[in-house]
Amino acid sequence: MREIRPGVIPVGALDWDRRIFDELIPLPEGTSYNAYVVKGSTGTALIDTVDPTKLEILLGNLGELGLDRLDYIVANHAEQDHSGVIPRILSRYPSARAITTPKGKEFLKLLLHVPDEKIQAVQDRETLSLGDRTLEFIHTPWVHWPETMLTWLREDRILFTCDLFGSHYATDELFVSELGRVYWAAKRYYAEIMMPFRGPIKGHLEKIRPLPIGIIAPSHGPVYRKPELILDAYRDWVSDRVKNEVVIPYVSMHHSTAVMVHSLEKALADRGVPALPFNLTVTDIGELAMALVDAATVVVGTPTVLTGPHPAAVYAAYLVKILKPKTRAIGIIGSYGWGGRTVKDLAGILQGLPVEFLEPVLVKGLPTSADLLALDALAEKIAEKHRAYGIL
Ligand code: FEO
């Protein structure tokens, strides 16, 4: 079997075929559930496990290693794709204990019914000796659950980060040396899963800055032999810097809203502001989430259905609300036939985001030339703001 370092062996599973995660997140490139055996002179640890669908692969890999004894199962994160088979691994290796944060202990008991006596909670920066190797546990709550931690293998300078720095990207390549396609998979992962926790992640990046990291080994996607590749990408994504871009998630029933979107897009382009329209009837929400990572402005486009926004626009607005991008300004445009509460309903969903709300442009029926002038004015207002942000 391949090794990351002598005695540090990947034993997880690839999932080439999985196409959705949490019944929500598209996985166009599959995923992997990475788990790692760390052999020390006096103890052996398994870092993370696999999704329950891949138990047999993990057991097969442990069998291939001839691992008769396991002392510790480190649960960096209690979500089922990493911890779901801990009860089965504990049955196979009855002398092992699960190692996790105090909050992780609660979750392992609550979600997986792991017996209390089988779990050892560790404090922030607590260490565990495997003889000639030392594991140090670094609490990093909210990436992306409250119990998460990282595991630092001191002597080998390997940081096991579970979801943090991960990517839903199935590949036979163990290491990534150039970001290439993995950059986009990692950005998609950040956008869909980590972006709401931009604040805590900034703090965690500072917390791990003093570590002389040689390798970052996440539990999804390839291992980073050049940690700066992914650390620099994360530093950029979590920074307060925004890009001169306008994301326009929209839906149109009778083409009037589409006319408005394309008119706004052209008016923005004329002012040097690139627009990224996403037709919500065909959009992969991961692509939309990725665009939200950097864009300075979002404009939601919707027709009025019955008395309010189209459900697809409600969904998009709700995504923006829960993903909490660093977007600075949000607008609403759309067409209606005889009235309704479209702006009020969408604004209600978006309420609470630390953004500036732009004057909405709602028009009756097919947009007239006067309506298109209002969109021109909106484009000018957005360009002004982007100049004020120093990005245009
Ligand atoms: Fe990969 Fe939050 O689990």
Work out the helicity level: 25-40%
Our count of domains comes out at: 2
CATH hierarchy class name of the largest domain: Alpha Beta
* Count of discrete alpha- or pi-helical segments spanning 4 or more residues: 12
Head-to-tail CA distance between termini: 52 Å
Q: Can you give the mean pLDDT?
A: 97
Question: Could you name the ranges where pLDDT drops below 50 across 5 or more consecutive residues?
Answer: none
Class based on secondary structure composition and strand pairing: alpha/beta
CATH level 3 topology of the largest domain: Metallo-beta-lactamase, Chain A
In this entry the ligands are: MU-OXO-diiron
- The assigned CATH architecture of the largest domain is 4-Layer Sandwich
Oligomer: single chain
In total, how many beta strands? Answer: 24
Strand content: 25-35%
